[in-house]
Amino acid sequence: MLTKALRGRDFISLMDFNKEELETILDVAMELKREKAMGMLHDDLLRAKTLAMVFANPSTRTRTSFEAAMTELGGHAQFHTPQVMQIAHHETWVDTARVLDRFVDGIVIRMYGLEHYGDARKILRLMADNAQIPIYNALDDKEHPFQIMADIMTMIEKLGPDWRNKKVVMSWAYSERVKSAGVPQTMTIAASLLGMNLTLAYPEKYDVDPDYMAFAKKASEKSGAKINVVHDIYDAAKDADVIYAKSWGSFLMSKEEDKEYRKQFKEDWKIQKKHFDVAHKQAIFMHCLPADRNLEVTDEVIDGPMSVVYDEAENRLHTEKAVLALTMK
Ligand code: CP
Asked: Which secondary structure element, helix H or strand E, spans residue 168, and what is its range?
């Protein structure tokens, strides 16, 4: 385990981290979770520290778990939206970062769906360049790093010591809404760094960002990760240990074109019992939530014995506590 390597670091992209650093975060998250279960408090870890949370998009889990994390760590979290900050009157993100830097000890930002893919990431990086304190990515168009740390923690808990060799299927799923590809892209990076066995299953034209695939290819050569792409979810589900459903948008179409194009996949790309019938007997169902019930996944599966979605959601809290405690100065 590393001790000081993470202090002061931003948490924007998993591509900025190595295997040992990600494993340190997971180890600490496990320890914090175990200690909490035993009634131990962690309120001396970030006592009197303040986290500013800027949410340009809606959130249930991320906002409440970060706020609870700061309470449990002995600090405080403030909730902001750009609409009620002077950003609304065109104050720059640079000035916003420089000023918040004088008041608080870290900034969480959720921002996606600006005019172009990558615009939100530019703002996150700009803020990081203009603040001494850590900037935390709470979902942009490219990645959802905190979600994926919680997902991996859940896999370790549910799949046991051989988790890296278990077949994880990250499946595109139908939704009426065109969503960020942050989850599959971050999972691809995590899998490649940690040496996992990941199958990305999606219909033609839903390829993830080629920069992410290129990074993953290189990282996999070092870690021994296996990353496959298939275009048939029924085939992908065979012998799976994890089926993770997530809808995302295409880079090859406008939102309107995508909404029309995806209609043909409405029935085939809904995770349902037939997929678990061909998966391993003990296979689990994962979803980052919120789920589009009976579109992305049937009620029978998400409410069934194979579903671990609420344990997965809970692990947001423990992994966020770990990252905050390890990075905030
Ligand atoms: N999974 C997730 O990020 O949930 P919220 O959008 O509710 O924060």
From this structure: strand 167-172
Dihedral sign computed on CA atoms, order 62, 68, 70, 73: negative
Nearest residue CA, atom 7 of ligand 1? 60
Residue 284 carries which DSSP code? E
pTM strictly above 0.70: yes
Residues 207 and 311: their CA atoms lie apart, in Å, by 29
The CB of 59 under 6 Å from ligand 1? The reply is: yes
- Does the Cβ of 289 fall within 6 Å of ligand 1? yes
Q: What is the mean pLDDT of each run of 10 residues along the chain (329 residues)?
A: 89 98 98 98 98 98 98 98 97 98 98 96 98 98 98 98 98 96 98 98 97 98 98 98 97 95 97 98 98 98 98 99 97
Q: Which residues pair with 228 in a beta bridge?
A: 199
d(C-alpha 96, C-alpha 174), whole Å: 38
Residue 271: strand pairing partners = 297
127 in Cβ contact with 109 (< 8 Å): yes
What sign for the dihedral angle of Cα 224, 230, 233, 234? negative
